[in-house]
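ingest -> fold -> write
write: protein_1
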Amino acid sequence: MSIAFLADKSQSKITKDDLKDIAANLNITIQDGPDAEAYLLLLQSMEAVMQRIENSTDYIHPSLSPVSTAKPREYWLPRDRNEQNPLNAWRHRCELVASKPTSRLLQGRTIAIKDNISIGGLPTTLGTFTEILCRDGKLPISPIDASVVSRILEAGAIIKGSSNCENFCASPLSYSAATGPVHSPWLHGYTTGGSSSGSAALASANIVHRQTQTENKFGLTVDLAIGGDQAGSIRIPASFTGIYGLKPTHGLIPYTGAVGLAPMIDHLGPLAERLEDIALLLQVMAGYDGIDPRMTPESPLRNQVPDYPEQLSQFRSRPLADGEGLGTYFKIGLISESFDIPGLTTQVRDTVLQSSKKYFTQAGASVSEVSIPMHREGIVIWTAASRPSTSEWACQGKPGGFLTFPPPHIHTQWPPDQKMYEILTATNPALINIIFNAPFINQRFGPMTEAKAYRKVFELRAAYDRAFEEFDVLVTPCTPSVAMPHPKMCADTDGPASSIMDKVNVAVGVTTNTAPFNVTGHPAMSVPCGFGSVSERPDVKLPIGMQVIGKRWDEMSVFKAAAIFEEGRRLAGQ
């Protein structure tokens, strides 16, 4: 590898002791002499290179420059303008409308954007604390619009603000945000699921409001929302709150401008009450942006993105022959191993099994079980393949070895200190676990085990792909239970706050059926399929979601399956 230049030694503070310390950490001993002098000069030269970059002006990619808006961009906290935020679903509020939209696909539709996605003129807080994001107490303002934000504005939508998300997006539940737990509109004090917690709460509250037919008790809500998904963070909150949530094929929607956990598992996607709106948002957001390295030669160009809403409409309205149903010739495979995972409650298992068999069949589709033994290993493979990278990307903000465009305003604290440890232990100990995992994995196993896990991802993908040779879509339960109460986050007169294990135990197993498809890249969507309850509040209905998985790059089969399921419910009078 070439050397840019040799530094002026007099301009460096690096000493031989620094060199020896670096070598010692690598189990190498360097004696004084010509070798030490040479390597010291090379270190000093590297320091000069990095210092020159650090001192230079940053670069904003023209494609990410904020879209021109009808009014100057401003933001506020909900309480600043006496706006209700009873679900704690909003992080920052705004009112952004493009001054010159290029289409009317989302004209007048209101939308919330998860708070790990850059919105020009607003802070991006990742659900965490100000002191972890900046040392001066001033939240950094985004100088860019993420690719999906630009596309949403250009389609005529009204961005109402950033929705709360879990601390560093590292929880499948909704108790860890710096501003406190995000509450389910179905039952206050219960989880919405995470990490796209605020997005799900804001998009689902309208359903609860209509069903209860009472005055609005949720404050400002939205028609549509955008979330992020690394292990189920769109599908899990969609399942817990009774709406649709799609994790598309990896690389279909650009992740540019969003803060990720690890490139292999990073996805953005839509949440909405209606299936047609999921299809519409996917049409708006999908397509190659020329920046995101997660996208591949399989990713369509913008002008090649399918018209998902039109194709869905044509599928629903196509003429049927006598005796045909909407789902005739469509094959549904129920992954048998997914109905036997640890922690799966009887009511969720039975609801997904019975409703899928009843309603798909009612609409003419065939339903049968398929065994994919490797599904049981999916969560293990996901963990081993993604955990080391998660520490580097999410916690350290470290880019990979390929060209990418990290959000320029995000500078998370690294290395951690005692105060950071205490803050995160109290709110999201899963993140401290991630921080501890990376050096442990490196010391105990080294990179080769992680590399083997990558190869196992291909094996897992192939196992699902073999099933797709027989079936159009696969089905699993989405979450293993209905929503559960938040752990106790603060000590009070009733006793201490919940322990680390109290917070961790409630989340164990939540992503078992969802995370495997983040590493394999298959599209997967939570489809509302029924309701359950909890013993503490048997009078309250809590949603249950069914996960529908499709072949990679075949979102339309996922949409068709959901439409068939809806038709089956209609025919059954549900």
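write: protein_2
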Amino acid sequence: MEDILKKASYWLSHFFDEDTRKETQDLIDHDPKNLEESFYQNLAFGTGGMRGIMGVGTNRINKYTLGKNTQGIANYLKKSFPDLEEIKVAIAYDCRKNSDTLARIVANVFAANGIKVLLFSELRPTPLLSYSVKKFNCQCGIVLTASHNPPEYNGYKVYWEDGGQLVPPQDEEIIAEIESLQFDEVLFKGNEELIELIDKEADKVYIEESIANGTFGVSAENRKKLNICFTSLHGTSITLVPPILEKAGFTQLHIVQEQAEPDGNFPTVKSPNPEEPEALSMAIELAKEKGSDIVIGTDPDGDRLGIAVRNENNEIELLNGNQTMVLMTWYLLEKWKEQNKLTGKEFVASTIVSTPMMRVLTESYSVTYKEGLTGFKWIAKLIKDHPELSFIGGGEESFGYMVGDFVRDKDANTSILLACEMAAELKAKGKTLLDQLKELYVEHGYYQEHLVALVKKGLDGAAEIKQKMIDLRKNPLTEINGEKVILVEDYATSEAKNFQENKSHQIDIPKSNVLIYYTEKGSKVAARPSGTEPKIKFYVSVNSTLDQVENFETKKEEAQQKIQQILKELGV
């Protein structure tokens, strides 16, 4: 506690503003628990950048932690591009509390360091920021967002000149630059001449490229026949999804008006996360009223999407992230095949915790399949590392997808367009997305996944998560639901142990705190602490054959029972 008091006392110095000093003193005097939580560590970069609770302290999102980050990045940019006459940074922000204010603070720090800033004048989705970094020849991009985290959170994602998020070794180098600074070294007083407000010019070119990448010749008549219900869940996608769909010719678009106004309090949902069925409940009710074929919702910064469609009983059913990813990948592969664009020099990408069906599906088209760690920054890195290959598309289980490489991050806007294009084409053939998914299961095998995320908040929670991973490594599973474990991949040590062949090999993927078990019958269990939330996640995948569509419900029930038994054995 002595170290924490020392760190907190520094925040009482006159460099910090009066409100910050007062809040810090209140924590010291009256709230030792929150004082510890606010100062016990420096807020770190994770899977999707930096996210945290807003407030005073080194472990919180505030003017000073973001200012110090930005100063470190400004210093790093100058070292990385010493011969560039003008270094440029694009900055966007979402609907969260203080996002606009924090974006202006970040802009001022860059400008104070002589760096040109292209600052969006209003909130915009994260994919537009990724796109703008490349389109406007910026060396870096920042978006102020905490994605789908609760209202008390905000965050800071950093992009590099290729439009992808930071990956090693740059992230470690930038962190070292940040950690070498003191707060009083941050230049907060910006040069207004170096800050340029942008918006409509970026929207226009992005919408055009989104339509070019997300449509495949479905007739105007069939697009008009698709009945769509959409909710932005109080987030940024309201600025781009409607104009993209309307310009592409989807005229039957019903918007959940109660959730259309951007609002960082997210007043109509428990969590603004399209992974949660409850988040789409208002949209599903509107869809029932309007007779919609498809329901779509996005998270606050407009990069994740949730989709619900009609099932055989005409009820609206939510697809999970793996199912959406498989369908979109199938559609892209089919269209590339129809257009004779598959030359043997293309690839699809996903992540190590996503459904194994992605590999099976992709390789059935004789297309290369590549896998990376969780997070789209790794898919962006695969694109960057393999310029000899054309990227078709890819995604991950957590409701994200990327269509082509014009955006180097998950992109709900273009993915929604692609989903509607696919749904319109299937509807014209008398089919739904679920019908098509079942046919894919018959052809490639039935796969079912389930995710359990255990929330462990604060200092004690972090210790509990750390101990859980230590225990799993000390006492590795040898059997799962009566099936022998034949392979264990430990991404922390980069070692994979094959017990059938009694061999080990190195994993050619950057290190990460992830353990994955594979059984003799194809079941897969992964354990991974979240990189952006106080959670430890367990991913379970099981598979079997499906001989005909009519037996789908039986197979689904069998898989669910198997998954529940596995979770029971894991104690989660």
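write: annotation protein_2
The chain has a mean pLDDT of 95.
The two ends are 33 Å apart (CA to CA).
pipeline exit 0
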